[in-house]
# Entry
Amino acid sequence: MKPHWFYILLSVSASPRYGSAIQDDVRALSDGKVRLWPATLYGSLEELTSTGWLEEMEGDERPRGIAGRERFYRLTPRGRDALEEEVARMEALADTARARLGGRRARA
Amino acid sequence: MIWKRLYRSALWLMPAGLRRKHGLAMEALYTHELQRAYRAGRLRGMASGWLGIWDVVRRGLYERWRARGSGALASTGGTPERQSQLEGMMDTLRQDVAQVFRSLVRAPRFAAAVVLTLALGIGANSAIFSVVDAVVLQRLPFPEADRVVHLAWDRGGWRQGGMSPVKFEYWHDNTRSFRGMATWHSFLARLDVGDSVTGVPALRVSRDFLRVVGYEPRLGRGFTDAEDVPDGPRVALISHRLWEDRFGGARDAVGSTLRIDEESYTVVGVLPDAFAFPQVSERIDVIVPLGLRVDPKDEGANYPIIARLRDGVDRDAAAADVARLDASFAEQYPNQVYDHDGGMKLATFEELYVGDVATALWVVMGAVGLVLLIACANVANLFLARAVSRRGEVALRAALGASRGRVVRFVLTESVVLALLAGGVGLLLARWGLGALVALSPAELPRMESIGVDWRVVLFTFLAALATGLLFGAAAALPAARTRLSDVLKEGARGSSGRGRGRQVLLAGQAALSMVLLVGAGLLVATLLSLRSVDPGFEVEGLVAVRFPFKPAGYGTAHAMWELERRMVEEAGRAPGIAALAGASNLPLERGLNLPMSIGGRPDDFEGAVEWRAVTPGYFSTLGIELLAGRSFSEADEEGGLPVVIVNEAFARRYFPDGSPLGQRVDIGRYRGAFIDPSLEGPGAEIVGVVADVREVSLRVEPRRTVYQPAAQAATMLADALGGMPVFIARTAPGGGSAERVLRDALRSLDPGLPVPEVLPLSGVVSESLTRERFGATLLSTFAGLALVLTAFGIYGVLAYTVRRRRQEIGIRMALGAGGPAVSRMVALQGLVPVAVGLMVGAGGSLALSRLVASMVWGVSPTDPATISVVAALLLAVALAASWLPAREAVRTDPVRSLGPE
# Structure
């Protein structure tokens, strides 16, 4: 999975968010390392929506109290599966890596 | 904010659906990011600006690629194989670009030289393209603009856009091909709002006008047929801008009143924001009905015609329909048609309103194209030099298994990346340059207001950069692809000395292109100089021109205006600080009226129009125009007195070659036995004096035959056609303070209600009349200078490179006893020979292209041998100077060191 997809999915997994809120959140999640520029952000949101991992919220489901015409996105069940699968893959990879590094250190 | 505009332009790269859905949000987010970055520092802000744009470009290309690759499946994101194939390609591209950046960072001077050279070339092209685009290429700002046509009257040699009222009415009423046909008359409307008075651009239009331009009022209604009649109701349409400024965008603006030219008008409608009328100005604030008075005797060609084709009618059919009426019109109104007239024709906006400016602009566009080619040649040389020095690396890579395609792709990526970077810098340069360019351009340049960097310019720059990059990439990649490791090893690490032919050809080409540009610039500069040295026939020093910005209040009639003129000359002329003051119907070198005339006692002796000027008695003495015979005007030449005129020398020479014109009579405005306007009828005027010739029309044009009439006797003549606003010429007395203040004070004491006059030195008027020439000369000189500098760098670069590569050979020669002069000659000739060849080719090219600039050149032949020789000498001198440094370096070669190990 592309890193910025991962961050976007992770960001909306907590609660539905709109474009610039996702951008801020991703920046925070990544310790300021991942900066989603507008075209990439909105292009990816579209792409993830068409893949069925995200969905745009309809009028009355939108969180109340937030003014404006922002489009809110939330994770679909399929999106959650994909995210969890990716996290599992990363965990497995991290385990393998840790084992190797630990092993080498042990041999040294 | 330029970033926002750039970003908005770049957004067009995104697929339409995405852009429509998220465009605004993206723009807002970008602006937000940018502000945040700018708070952290200017440099960081600029970096963010570019990164954001780069993001759009990259993503836009990716999205389009994705949409195309998946075809009908676009919504499902495409098949997995396709996606992975695409990702593979994007990966390779990303790797290549990253590698290019790494290699460029290792060679920063090379990268900077290439980017800067190309940026100058591309920036110049973008700047000129923005002008050409706005002035020549842009379609008219009307809905379905290709259905809008103009009509022009064929006068034999030229096409006249203005029509007499009867011509307009005849074609309006009798054609069948048009949905509407309209005419207009532009004027500066005096607008009174509260205490403030402003002049705003305005139109009087005939009834079909809105239907022809294709706009509906945004609010209210257009004019009804009943409103478009002479002395009809006073109703007005106002622009969107005026609506917002004056009425705060309130709906009840419709129905309220507006003071226009001291009359109350009812606002009946508001024009849409998009409304513009480049035939007159991009900005029109007020439109009122024309109420054209149709008099078959009125031949004044003051009404242009614009029309919209009826659905299903094409241009050819419309042209035939228009021409069909020529014969019947000529029969019905013989006074309206001259012998050599070709009748009514369809015409385009470009023909009537852009005209020779287009030629000048295309010449300049060609010139900057040549500059870019020269810049390209320089960069190609840099690339070739680098390619040679990197042959080892390339060959090694090939030997290690890099495919030939991969090597070519890498070089291409490198050149395209550099060219795109240069395009970005060039766009900034263009933006800076545009301000200067617009300030320099002639006032009559149509649609000047819309010149700017828009998405079309950005697209042009991008394409120009891409093409440039691919061009060099190809030039540099092909030799690289042919490189074989064995060849390189055989030649040794130092490479060969005999492979400079490509570079020499490029040098010759550069010299030839520079030559062509410099000759063009030289011709235009010579033109400007010869025009400057033309004696206009009147004094300029110490004189100022004075005029009112709009019609002063309370002087509505022609007669009242004349009273003001008389009092100004009499009273203000005596005010302290003013040495002389004279009034005239218009300034010299500005367009005046010309009228037919016949000479008393000579039957049917019409010989073309004469220039006509109405002047006060002090006119000739104030301007220093010499009286050659007879007397000047005096206060005694009053209205109702014996009509008199003064003619100029050209007039006397033409009509009275053998005798004195004094005492003869002329009928001004009389043509084939009838007067063209009833106000001109009279017993004929006696010629009482002859004055020296003045260049009345333009410095380029020989003095025309001119008739001067006392302003007192011309007061009510042609009152409508003249618009009745005289200008004044004043000489201020020394020590009286600034001319502006002296005149303002004098006029205020005359009538405190007079508007503050515009005061312009007469030298400014003369200089103003040369703006078009100066525009061409300055632009072409700037670009020719740029070409010269680039060529000098090119020569220097090639020779310096040659010296470095041939150090061994030079060392051997010197060790064998070759003297310094012989060595430097050898090196210098490497540069001078191609330049000399280039000069000859360039001279030939200049002669071949002389036809193009012929219409812009005056007082010097377009194939002027002196200009060509001077330019050739200049180029040779520059080439010598550019060769000198490398040649000196060659002489300093130390044989021992050059032969030693590297």
Summary: Residues 70-80, 492-498 of chain B have pLDDT under 50 and may be disordered. The two ends of chain B are 54 Å apart (CA to CA). The longest strand of chain B covers residues 178-193.
